[in-house]
Each structure stands twice: as C-alpha cells, then as structure tokens.
Amino acid sequence: GVLAEFFIMKIPVDINVKIERTDFSNYRNVADVPVPSTTENKYKGLMTVSKRLLRLEYDEGTGIGGESLKTVVSSFGDFVSISRSGTFNSSLFFEEDKACDCVCDAGFMPMNLRIYTKRLLNKLSPDGGKLELDYTVEIVGNLAEANSFKLSFAPANCGS
C-alpha cells in the first residue's frame, strides 16, 4: 500500500564490478592503437527495490583528496543510470542503441559527455543478477573512451 512506499528496506549485497576501458584521449594515429585497461573489484553494498526501480549503492573507497567515492546504479528495465560522487561527479544514462547527453563535473567545470550504448544486458532482479554495458564516451564530438562495464551481485550471506 501507500504506507509501504515509506518503508523501503536497504538489503546488504555483495557486488562485483569489472571495467574494461580503452582511452583514446592520447590517440594520435592508426599505429597508436590504445591498449584497454581492466579493473575488477568486489564491494559490500546496499540494494533498494521499489515498484519500478532496483537501486544498488556502494562505496569505492577514497579518492586522491580523501573524499569518499560513492556509486549508485539504478535499473529501470531498458534504461540504466550510473551516478558517481567524489573527486568527479557524474550521472551517465544508458539505453541500448541510443546516445544520451550526460554531464561530468570535474570540479573546475562541468563537461558535456555523449554516451552511446552499443549493448545493454540488464538481468538485475531482487534475487541478484548481472548488468553488462558496452558504450563509448565522446567529448566535443571526439571519441574519448570505449568501455565495457560488468556488474554482478547477490544478496550478502549473513554468515560471512
């Protein structure tokens, strides 16, 4: 009922995130094919579920200036957003085969980013699941990055 909407529980979850990033910002000619870098991390996070939204939040530790880095992944089915706060604040939006204009605040000046989602596989559910995104980032019409973002999660084991 209406009252239940006010008491949304945050459920502990174990999250695994793997990111493969190809940085084209120093790309000068065809011979300089950039090599992708890959990071994989495990986080303890919280899941919130409401009628139309599944939300995961996790802390990524601390940034260069000691500020906490927090990520929120929100799933609306065919549409996903990832917001990060900390050193850089960004809100990225993903919809398969679509380009979205997004903003990244680098502290000194906000930048417009164009995010083109090549592939979005959203298998997130309250029982766990995975999200896979393949996307590019353009800054002022120039290809800056090609990324693959893979997140999987499961409710945390109370015994661990």
Name some characteristics of this structure.
160 residues, mainly beta, 10-stranded antiparallel beta barrel, 0% helix, globular
Protein described:
The chain has 160 residues and is mainly beta. It has no helices and ten strands. The mean pLDDT is 87.
Short account of what is shown:
This protein is mostly beta strands and 160 residues long. Helix content is 0%, strand content 67%.
Q: What distance separates the N and C termini?
A: 34 Å
Stretches with pLDDT under 50, minimum 5 residues: none
Largest sheet: 10 strands, antiparallel, barrel
| Rg from alpha-carbon coordinates | 17 Å
Q: What global shape is seen?
A: globular
- Count of helical regions: 0
Which structural category do the helix and sheet elements fall into?
A: mainly beta
Q: What value does the average pLDDT take?
A: 87
Could you give the topology of this structure?
Blueprint: E1 10-23, E2 37-49, E3 54-62, E4 68-75, E5 79-85, E6 89-95, E7 99-105, E8 110-125, E9 128-139, E10 142-155
Antiparallel strand pairs: 1-2, 1-10, 2-3, 3-4, 4-5, 5-6, 6-7, 7-8, 8-9, 9-10
